[in-house]
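2 proteins. here.
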Amino acid sequence: MSIARNPCHEVKSYEELLEKIAYLNFYNPSLNLVFRGQDADYQWINGDREDVRSNLHPSIFRGLPTNRPEAKSVVSRRVGILEKAENLLKEKIGTGYLYKHRVLRWAILQHYEICQTPLLDVTNSLQTALSFAFSNDHEKGYLYVLGLPQSTGPISTSLESMTQLIDLSKLCPPDAARPHYQHGLLLGDYPSGLDLEEITRRAPHVSSNFACRLLTKFQLTNMHNWVGNSFTPTPKDILFPNSHDTYYRKLIAIKDEANA
């Protein structure tokens, strides 16, 4: 977890970043590099106030109270919403893999921001990750590079790392545009991350911080100089193609009903 505790590596240009990614690829040939872009390096305190780490928790574990009973109550409420949304998803869109794989249902709900889940959004597209890092027009952004075992299929399980990686672009039809445009991948713990009773029981002692998979983290500076010179972020209407994404319209209805 030392990388999560350490300061970010500063990168001042797109060319410099590409060079560093090339080094990471070359010196980690057995790993599958995936990316996550953010506008801030969100952190959490692990008990001791001096133990501050980058926070790559799944959304269902974020922002929990430090008081154990309160944290369990919050997670229990989130789990209830997730289960309700999952059942609605099976009812309204349930076909094929959606009935067979619970983790796929969670992946869709997480990727479309319908409810909080035990999964973390990542991507194998550097372009997409950087576009999220640039999304709020700040002078700096953050890029996380995680090293995972090589994928073995659209739902890839690694007993070595105790993780699952779900490739939504391989599992969603073309008219579900968002995962294809974003090269959407979802990362989860295996098998404990699939057990909602265990997830509720453990809160707030959360182990699912994917910062343990970090190869490095970058702070991207002078971002106004990147745009138009060497890098152009993907427009938001491409990252979120809601107007012609058939899943989006159905899922928004699920979100309203699950949270009612």
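next one coming up
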Amino acid sequence: MYKIENLCEISHGKLIQGDKNFEITNLSDIYNSSTRSIVYFNDKKYLNNLSDISSQTCLTSVNFLDLIKNHFKNVIVSENPYYSFALLTNFFADSFNTSFSKSGSYIDKTAKISDNVLIGPNVFIGKNVSIGQNCIIDPNVVIYDSSKIGENCNISAGTIIGSQGFGFVNHENKWHHIHHNGDVIIGNNVSIGSNCCIDRGTLNSTFIADNVIIDNLVHIAHNVKIGTNTAIAAKTGIAGSTKIGKRCMIGGMVGIFGHLEIADDVIITPKSNIYKDIKKPGKYSSLFPLLEHSKWKKVSLLVQKLDKIKKFFWNE
């Protein structure tokens, strides 16, 4: 168990009311809490459920203080409560005795594995791979030859790094594969989700900069460059040789064409298809918002008639 004063220090929070020596066993959601849990409160929609919360300790922002202080015995306030919540999730995760086994894994003798790297079972690490310190490589990850991974990276289960890219040339009605002889370079503090595929460069490198976070089921093709602090949500596909800037946020199921350049500080909403360069920061979409089906049928019909509508208004 952990005293609240210790959790305040870890989370950069301040105890506004309660007992600093009160002991906490775990972090939990509001519906499955116990007396010794700490819960995170961040939305007014949960106000009607306060009577169902067993926990006596809450992490929140000053904006919710007056609304919840009469329900919780102990209240911790943070300037950025979501960040504080993230710190606590990592603290409680580290407090468990989690161990990894290299059972069934293959690590080539030429690979360079730094200190404090955890490697799960059934991992393949090829020739001349380098992995920086404090990385976690989950089970069933494949890291092909010459891939380079920085420090403090998490590679989740089933991900493949350095696979052959989808490059073919058609000659005399037959597809001929273009062998990819480049590599993959991944910076520091990068998080890659489960079942992602990151292809090696054709001749040079596929590059992912520091502090990039990538969700599950993302495909990054050969020679793609991704800038620092960019976030990519699940089921996104990025075609070859595209360059994505710094601090971009790419929603789920986005398709990005090849050989494009996307500026820094760009937000792309989910399910968008990006087929041309984005040269300035901003928020971009390429699909209609959600509509009732009956309205969507009308919109779809109008879209099919845009050429005729254009001729009517512009006299073309």
